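Protein modeling request. Please complete all fields; requests missing the sequence field cannot be processed.
Requester role: graduate student
Desired output: 3D structure, token encoding
Chains: 1
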Amino acid sequence: MFITGMCFAQSQIDSKIQKKGERVMSMERVMIEEPRLARLLFSDTRFAWLWLPLRLYLGYMWFEAGWHKFVDPKWMGSGEALLNYWERGLKMTPKPTISYDWYRGFIEYLVNAEAHTWFSKIIIFGELAIAAALVLGAFVGVAAFFGGLMNWSFIMAGSASTNGMLFAIATWLVLAWRNAGWIGLDRWLLPALGTPWKPGQVFTVTKHSISAV
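Delivered output (213 residues):
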């Protein structure tokens, strides 16, 4: 009986130690290292040339789309062209253009609120700003993200066209935000301004100056 009791007690202790070890392991921070190829493509500035053609192409496409709307009174003036685009997307025959009810409801809300009068300007200047940032290589990751968001919005509204391809290119440029604009203004902007999680030289110098005072 004594031996049996000792074995049972030992098994209970071992079980508790094992459970405690499992809890500790589950709380450990796990960092999965990215492949070397990914680091080279998306981080190494030596591969900036790889993204330059895609960046310039995407910038040109956004400039062409934005400028076409800028010189069109139905876009830049009354916003009638955007209203017509939304109304085409809301058609239900012979089949719904917009596949998702929640997005159709969102477009209907914009139509009823007559948002086309000001929303068209946001689209125009947004497209031109994205084009300028991509061509100049300034905050390429941010520009590509918002460009991809606009492509996604057009696709959701039932307009495929070139949006799928442009969205794919934008996605790659977002992944390569660290080096895609290195042959451009990001060569100086990123080290100077840094990121929200790591301030750049400008903010570091300012912080030291304030501390010295």
